[in-house]
Fold each of these.
Amino acid sequence: MDLISFINSSLGPRLGLFIARYISRKQAYWLADWMTGLVVKREDSWVVQGVRANQSVVRGIPYESPDLDKAVYEVIRNTARGYADWYRAVAGGPEVVKASVIIEDELKERVFKSVREKHGVLFVGPHMSSFNVMLLGIGVMGHPVQALSYPEVRGSYIVDNEVRKKFGVNITPISFQTLREAIKRLRNYGFVMTGVDRPDVGGEPLTFFGRKVVLPIGHARLAIRTGANVLVGRVEDEGNGYYRGHCEEFIEPESTGDEDKDVLSLAQRIIMVVEDLIRASPSEWLMFHAVWPDVLPSQRDTE
């Protein structure tokens, strides 16, 4: 088993959680950086190629350019350090988790104003910085949130979800049943969270960084059908294990009576905000799956 396979197995996070109890943050970052060095050496791995392809599009740099080497390293290092912070927060317990997350007052006010006005709140955003720490932070603050995740639940995902559940975060892989739960929660003025920047064969073509790509639109349909307000935001790394929840745009969906048209319009509006967030801090976009597969050499060679 190579390092990437080990990290993605159920053993990876279990070992990380164990080690986090006994080392300092400085040591944890050193270990994260060391592992990053090993991962980036595997230039033929799906992880390195996926990150390189994504950063190529986001930064407007050819896939083969040496200028992307640093970008790939930074993305994988930021991911590794984010997990180091997450494991340390989990090892420290609820109080450490709560202290690790800063949620802006403006964001809180917008959320609770929506609830007072009898609207659910749908949190959406890209996979940036440590969403894990943010999820746990919301959980321990006593705000029940249903987080919709991708259907595959295996290896490290299983362990990660077990940890999240202990901190009050309800992770539900997307299915007809969990979508019904999300609809009920939003209609009862509750909170639902999901990522919107990973390709989805069940989605629709949206324009993302000037290219058409099939992305999820289920979140937009949830908002239109339930009247929930949409909060588009991201998690920002403040350094030394601290993270800030930031709201980029707060959207009150409009309904024209044509649901399909309204859903696509809202989904495209959301992904344009997400694009701006990623463009402003590309090294914090921790997306390993190739969003634009046609950029990969293996795909270009078959054309």
Note: The longest helix spans residues 67-92.
Amino acid sequence: MEKTNGFVDKRYDFVLFFDVQDGNPNGDPDAGNLPRTDAETGMGLVTDVCLKRKVRNYVQIVKNTQKPFDIFIKEKAVLNSLIDEAHEQKDVKEKVKGDKTEAARQWMCAQYFDIRAFGAVMSTGKNAGQVRGAIQLTFARSVEPVVALEHSITRMAVATKAEEEKQSGDNRTMGRKFTVPYGLYRAHGFVSAHLAAQTGFSRADLNLFWEALQKMFDHDHSAARGLMSTRALIIFEHGSALGTANAAALFDRVDVKRATEGSARKFSDFRILLDGEPVTEILKLIKLKEKE
């Protein structure tokens, strides 16, 4: 893949496939935590924010929040305190007023993986500016319509004495959970060499990002999400920073066909194809020629 030293100097476009079995890949809090769907087509949706969260969580586990791979947007973080920390650095404090924001921005980029990768708005505290990240992701969309099932669940306990008295000692709590029986999802992504140069996004960062996309679901299991797995990561590596082909044309080279009839309930019901040929490995790197 990429060497570990230096900044990313090539453009990348990629396609990510992942699936869910008997789980909720991305609940919508505005709809009672139902799995997100396109109301017109029934296709399942997973937001880019959800996917970025899983990447952040993986990096946080692997790097143990050690700088320069710390995570800015993490659970229970107080963002303004982190931004203020940048302004307390000696090199930043010594700058004249007009340069402090830029110096703080550079310091934040140097410390936090997710700022380099995905960008951040850091003008809410002492002002460290705004960063547009080197990586952009689309929503993931299922390749076929999904069905959201509702299940009643029972807990053989109650939370309060009042509930116990109301039930006369029966002590049961009823609840509901929602699952998708099976769904194969496809997302697209882009890595900009020009934005990487601005944020300091390195080749080591990029390799870690590819690793996270392949392994992030292995460290994100929960009763709600069921069984989720990365199935294929197809990467188009351009020969230059500007790129040698149109991203849409590259994505059109990747297709999904049904291998069985009826309702899909497992990954083997589908075939992922690149230029008409089956993709059998999780990671597939295509190095583009100067003119594709």
Note: Residues 12-149+178-287 form one domain.
Amino acid sequence: MTWDVLSMIGTIAFAVSGAIVAMEEEYDILGVYILGIVTAFGGGAIRNLLIGVPISALWEQGIFFQIAMLATTAVFLFPNNLLKHWQRWGNFTDAIGLSAFAIQGALYASNMNHPMSAIIVAAVLTGSGGGIIRDLLAGRKPIVLQSEIYAVWAILCGLAIGLKMTSSPIELYALFVTVTAFRVLSYTYNWKLPIRSLRIH
């Protein structure tokens, strides 16, 4: 049940995120649907390839594809006066998707008895892979690589699950809420990792 709920939350959140980015870039309706679907399922597809899950497993998630399509359609039909607040609540849906999918990916690898390194990679790719593909298709620098702290929260999900610190549904939901809150704080207060620029100013 926890798995299904996290999958549903992540699917809706990332489909909404992808659709809004497509609309910001003035893509047509087909582009909006493609970006919504790719954002929702891209990270899971990459994860499956890397941890040895048949890629065909992606097509067994019929209900989640329908959910993503409905979420994308809803966003496309939203009034403009709601969509213009994307920076306020769009980042929040992205935070929800990050934490939900990072936990889901870590659980996936943990249930396959993969080592800690694979659990962390699965968490990061599932949590941020779709967003990376979304940003690249939209012609943007991937947020996970150059903006506020992002993938670090997915790594923490992988560590918590790999170390068996969270196993019960209540603990997993607590981890979900905690990681979402930290992601919200990181973009609200502009927390950043150290950078070193080679540009000459």
Note: The CA atoms of residues 43 and 55 lie 12 Å apart.
